[in-house]
Design goal:
Layout lengths: L10 H22 L6 H8 L3 H7 L3 H22 L5 H12 L3 H8 L2 H4 L2 H4 L10 H13 L10 H18 L8 H16 L7 H29 L3
Length: about 240
Amino acid sequence: MARAGRPPRDPARQTERAHRILDAVAELVLRWGYDKTTIDDIAQRAGVAKGTIYLHWKTRDDIFAALLRRERLLMMTEVRDRAPAMLSELFGEFARALLRRPLLQAVLTGDSQVLGKLTRQRRTSTRWALTEAAFEPYVAELVKRGAIREDPGDHLVTVGSIVYGFLFLRESLPDDTRPSDERVAELVADTIERTLATGRPLPPADAEAAARATLEFLDASVEIARRKLETSLGL
């Protein structure tokens, strides 16, 4: 018989419980903000004992880090499922998916009402679940296939500036002039296309290779995000 207070030994049940706790954290943080959300609140909302939470995570910060990793995994999975073929489509879908996730938007914009003390302690990473090491070979393949230009270089900086520039600008505009989420995604994709595309039609073989490289890049990104989440669930 399992000892009282311990999480169930069945890995599937442990995982379900961890996600139930994260569901509660997401709801409470968006409703009250991080500073006002206590472990007691989380336990009550999730329907678990307070001690059970500490068997998964040591601190509230650890729980929130796991929650953000789950949000990133869900976002990257959503982007992959949309099957973008080119760089501009990829990041248009990235912007579209991010704008559907209020917690990630709060991190991106440094929303103190949601994040509370976290905005003062450190800048929480807003990077998608990618690394430069993963991005560079992907870009090299697109350049090789003629899908994007090699110049001006610094593709990660260029793409990041376009994506986050539009997302930050959207938040700074008055409500009556703020573009819709869909329009922002379209603008991101169009600006990346105009900035980096060669302007030449791709032969079918190169178009297929570029689409395949994009899918492989997304698969790798999802796997990175999945592994990071697994290490954060306290199982």
